[in-house]
Amino acid sequence: MSVLVPFLPFDLCETPMSFVTRLAGFHLGTRVVPFLHDIGIRPEALAGCEFDAVEQLAGLTGAESAALHRNSARRIGKRRFDLRGHELTAEFFASPDTVFCPACLRENDIEASDIATARRGRLEWTFRPVYTCPVHGLALVRRRKQRWDDQFRELASMVPERGAELDRLVDDAEQRSASPLQAYALDRLDGASGPEWLGGQTMEQAVRSTEMLGMRIQFGASKKPSEMTPDDWDAAGRAGYEITSRGEPAIRDALYQMQAEFRGTSGKPGCRKIFGPFYEWLSSTKNRKDAGDITRILRDHILDTMDVAAGQAVLGCVLDERRLHSVQSLACETGLDPRTLRNVLAARGLIPVEQKITGHHVFDAEKGREVAGSVLRLTHVSALGKALGCTRPLADQLLDERLLRAISDGSNSTAGRTWKGVDNREIERFLEALRAAACPVDVVPTGMVPIAKAAEKAKLLSVEIVHLILGGFIEKVARLRDVNGYSAILVDPDEVRAQSNSVLAGVSASAAFGRLKIPKATGWALVDRREWPGLHPLVINGRTRQHQFYRFSEEAVADFMSEFTTEARLATQYNVERRVVVSHIKKARVRPALDASEIGVSIYRAVDMIELELT
User: Fold this and answer.
1) How far apart are CA 419 and CA 409, in angstroms?
2) Which of 89, 127, 179, 283 is the most buried (most CB within 10 A)?
3) C-alpha closest to that of 18 among 41, 46, 37, 45
4) 334 to each of 184, 312, 327, 337, how far by Cα in Å?
5) Using CA atoms, how far apart are residues 35 and 596, in angstroms rounded to an integer?
């Protein structure tokens, strides 16, 4: 095969089609299509960089075959191409647009009088994600296809400007640096490695997932891809690369931020409303491409953070069992009032207590069902004594000592909310523990009395005797077979008195909290705190190691009283109304050591109160 002479070298930056366009002008002064026909190469074959066509071009021109193939996006199927080992779809390329940098063309034009021979169509200009010339720092110019042969991107005809007109294009182009995403894509085509997560995706997956995530971040949830300009896509790529280059943790953080935009809003924001075009792209049935690992990340995030019902499909995955509930969905499932359910869930710590949290805040489905079940099994505190077989004051003592845990549905978000009832299963567990600690009898043994009577004789609280029984400190405990509940339990008051002297150090929780003038719920909140300020109890472990309860030393109570105070204590101390205390504290701008929003009552440092003029 003869070689075309004179020789025109192939530029390593250009495409085979750019090269043959320059050859047409150089040898015959003609357009590319008739020139290809003259040299026996089908234009469509070279446009698709078919192997034989590129080889034939190399043979005719003396250009290195390997260099031509390296810059060839070879068609391997319908709308599918291979470039340097990367399989890419037609959407990755700028076609049918012709893209160029006017400053690059101006430099080419200086080389020769014939611009058709001088102008190189850079390979990088054919990629859709390339929006900026990395050499001149100018936004690339795009020309739409007008005629059928514009697909060959002959720069002399597609860009007729030269001289002063080309200078104006340069002056009008926006100056900016190339985006990190563009740099990453070009470097990857050259064989360089990059961020780990992006490297685990195909080239097209990495670029597209970055752009679509960046689109949602940069332009919000309502922007449509069809409304995006090239400059918009460039901005989206910059925003997205900041996230995807740092991998899955950063992507998940970005998804959390998208959800945070809708926190406290009315209605139930769904995936499309929150994630916008990013979700639409991944969920569309029209998009048959494998989007890569980004689909799994978004799907896992949705299933981990949103209310998705069993059987509902999310990005190709059907959820077998509900993972999360919202207040609204659990209310629908259980038939409970959403307001009651919300307050109970907040009291149990499953949802925040902030007022801005909506009924669609999510939590673990199983734990939520447990809470809802406890509400459905609820015995109101007014009926607790009857359920236990004791008086109401004795039942209240069990609540005060947390031998029974109450459920609240009060609207108050503090720890001092009103107790409403107790789960029936908890009542039964308590009674079963008492029964297990007692020996069944048919008649009252000599010297033994009910717990309430023993408390009276021993000058104790009934609940203190219950602690002694459950802790295994009392040996003689009987239970009448024909009597149900708490009142069936019998003890020896002499043994109770003796054991109380050796076991019950300090004072009870009720007595300690009473001296401090704080609600019992607030007192227990102080006990549960692991950091300062807190209230440190004496821990009494039962002999069987199956029961534990708290007492409070006189010293601990006195120390807390000397270091901290409350509005109620100050009002008593100075014999004024509480509102007067509150007014003085506000005027003095004294900040509490612990706010009422945390434990139900504001706790102040006593030293901060010295300067208050309350007398």
Assistant:
1) 8
2) 179
3) 46
4) 52, 19, 10, 9
5) 86
